Amino acid sequence: MKKRVITAIVALAIFIPIIIAGGVWIDITASVLAIVGLSEIYIMRKRIIVSLDFFIGAIGVLLLSLPENALRWLPSDFSRFDLAYVFVALLLVLMVFTKNNYNFEDAGTTILSMFYIGNGFHYLAVIRNSDSGGLSLLLFGMIIVWVTDSGAYLVGRKLGKHKLYPAISPNKTWEGSIGGVLAAIIFALIYMIGFNQFRNITTMSQSVPMLIILTIILSVAGQIGDLVESAYKRFYGVKDSGKILPGHGGILDRFDSMLFVLPLIHALGFI
Asked: Could you list the residue ranges that cross the membrane (predicted)?
């Protein structure tokens, strides 16, 4: 527990100033986190990081995590997805030159990881740097994720009886899941109304029922993101995605829910 608390304090001392500063600092941070996240997938799969396929995948995940304005040198009709596909093609061609030592399943896992991780961290920076109250909107998403996680854990420990999905995550319960959503609603209302964040997040309706519906959607999405990570960790037979955060696991362990929630905030039209 002591190690966990110390890691949390150090991580927050680094991360909070970065999200407050925004700009190029959050852009760089998002890209670094994306590359580390990809490396954790490789380590879970027991594949070598110092390899040509990881190098290609790392460039791909970097391109997908970068903000659009970092790629202004591209032709106007050429997006970061188009550029990333070049590296998708390179991974597929690599199968030929390695005579299937690097095979289709390997390429598929790397490509899926590139888009899942790269696009998720892309919106960490994009939301923070948006003109729609970026800092307030990012904190809104983070509060929902963190409170859902904590609420689900506390309620699940006290009241949990009915397993949510034991084949994937045996400790999660329906009571904890619902408790997490309710806790997220309470804190979202406090944050948005008590701290008058509606004035900052100009794209969000000031309707309380709509705020509650939005919070439920994002809270559930965050829990799905958590279950997704539980699924592939169980598949690879590991407890944590990595060891970069002592007592907390890896980057994917800390951002699994955010990788689902942040793109959804964009998809719902808030930036």
From this structure: 6-36, 48-66, 78-97, 109-127, 133-155, 176-195, 207-228
Asked if 13 and 125 sit in the same domain, the reply is yes
Check if the beta carbon of residue 187 is closer than 8 Å to that of residue 222: no
Is the alpha carbon torsion for 252, 253, 255, 258 positive or negative? positive
Q: Summarize pLDDT for 28-55 with one digit per residue, the tens.
A: 999 999 999 999 999 999 999 999 999 9
Task: Using a pLDDT cut of 70, give the percent of the chain over it.
Answer: 99
Beta bridge partners of 245: 249
Among 119, 138, 141, smallest CA distance to 129 is for 138
Number of domains in the chain: 2
Token pair 């408790």 is found at 179
What pLDDT sits at residue 1?
62
Judgement on whether residues 183 and 103 belong to the same structural domain of the protein = no
Tokens of 44: 């879970």
Q: CA–CA distance from 64 to each of 57, 67, 70 (Å)?
A: 11, 8, 11
How many CB atoms sit inside 10 A of residue 32's CB? Answer: 14
Hunting for tokens 């390179």 — which residue is that?
A: 90
Q: What's CA 112's distance to the chain center, in Å?
A: 14
